[in-house]
Design goal:
2 copies of one chain form a homodimer. Chain A is an alpha/beta fold. Helices cover about 35% and strands about 20% of the residues of chain A. The longest helix of chain A is centred in the C-terminal third of the chain and has 18 residues. Chains A, B: It is found in: Cytoplasm.
Chain lengths: ~280, ~280
């Protein structure tokens, strides 16, 4: 078994599996949480929603505070919570800032040393981890996958969806970093992981990627109007909306939720909408 | 205003108020969280569910992980999360153990020095705090109150319900300490707060109190069969059930939930049942 089971926890009629495995992509042990609904079986495998978490998080934060399992269980949907970066590599400066290095991978494959040796979270999330899960969990149908995320993880969800057309049935995001090339968090991360070439940054920026999207885009975004990071210009959903409009892309729904902040209280409040959105795209509704 | 508002957070269409006030009962500043549903107003005030948390907790744990607000919001129910002990008194040994002193009041009025000067959580929860809330939150109807709790807080909910007949419309508990006089947690706490007279302990022990209960008892208890504290003899729900049966008390429902543990994953899974149980007793369903 590629995965070590650290614990299993009953939740909403299903099971949370807390797992660790050695990743060949990050060259580190990686933690993840996997919720499998009680209805899933090898003969009736569950489709999968990948949820990418934000800065400072581990797989546990949304597992404990997002309340997504409540809805996923009812609908027969599995949820994967990967970690937000490799752990334990201790590169110089890796743990100095909360918005760079550990817990802050931005879900790219780094091209700059020393990060490129481990910080390959795009390939890890998009390729290695689903493949490994499909080999070891016959209760999962990893051909039917949607993706979602929060904040930095919203950026990850949007960019992976846009960079791998057809791989995911839908994308949704809570308070996503929509235009990282133009916000302080993204500029710092991209400069560190990808270097100074801003043309390269565009390949990991949802607002730039959506300009060349073809067809409709099955995308739901929620942003809280009292979110200090929204107000502080880290999220820039208006830039994404403008690019969508300019490109004539149909489909994306961006909602501004009055009075909500950036926390998991926001995620949990609108979690049902996002789980149902994915479930519909995955044929469960 | 008796309360200082540290923050307000939008959640499930209502608002979480993070409050601090100076308690005359504990003679310390006390923290609490108060969820008020969006439907509450002075002309249509919400009834109140008091939720008492367990060992090691603050008001935040269940606020963040219990998901009770999701259901309470739909039903028009407010929820009060008091703290689990006074804070900041620094009595000798107060912070030495996780099962005694800070975060471990057991919701009694202590009679032993030095605890008796501050550890008066029974009077605080049953008397002072609801009275203060009624004075300052016209959106609350503090004449309609139910009580619930988890683990040590389940003990608190059961004993306060039984010690103040008619004060609460219903009581429910997740993994409660049902017979504290007979379990290590309770013996340690009662010896420390109340002294060595085991007759006095009985006045704070649900299994003893229920023996003299008159009438039916509107009580719901859930216990997880994989709960290590249940298996380790800290909860003893069978003793409570036996006392209920021997006393011929109608009403209590005790459910054993297969495979569930002691965590908030357990609380959140069955939270809807407990919120609906209170809501029904409070005339909302």
């Amino acid at each position: 078994m590629a995965f070590t089971t650290n614990s299993t926890i009953a939740s909403f009629g299903g099971t949370i599996h807390k797992l660790t495995h050695d990743s060949s992509t990050t060259r580190t042990p990686m933690n993840l949480n996997l919720f499998i609904p009680g209805t899933a079986s090898p003969s009736a495998p569950s489709p999968l929603l990948i949820f990418l978490s934000g800065l400072t998080c581990t797989p546990d934060n949304c597992t404990e505070k997002g309340f997504l399992q409540a809805h996923a269980s009812r609908l027969g949907l599995a949820i994967l919570y990967p970690d937000t970066s490799p752990r334990g590599t201790d590169h110089p400066g890796e743990h100095a800032d909360w918005d760079f290095g550990s817990s802050a991978s931005f879900y790219v494959d780094a091209t700059r040393d020393p990060w490129s040796s481990n910080y390959n979270m795009e390939s890890y999330v998009a390729e290695e981890l689903p493949r490994l899960l499909s080999l070891h969990f016959a209760q999962l149908d990893t051909r039917r996958v949607s993706i979602s995320g929060h904040s930095m993880g919203g950026h990850g969800a949007l960019t992976l969806f846009l960079r791998y057309p057809g791989r995911y049935r839908s994308v949704s995001a809570f308070s996503p970093v929509c235009n990282p090339s133009r916000c302080p968090w993204g500029e710092k991360a991209f400069a560190g992981y990808l270097g100074g070439d801003r043309e390269e940054w565009k390949r990991h920026d949802a607002t730039e990627l959506v300009r060349s999207w073809e067809g409709s885009l099955n995308c739901l975004i929620d942003v809280g109007t009292a979110d200090p990071f929204y107000k502080g210009g880290q999220l820039l959903p208006e830039n994404f909306a403008k690019a969508v409009e300019e490109a004539g892309v149909d489909g994306p729904v961006i909602r501004y939720q009055k009075g909500y902040d950036h926390s998991y209280f926001f995620v949990s409040t609108f979690g049902e909408d996002h789980v149902k959105f994915a479930a519909k795209a995955l044929g469960l509704l």
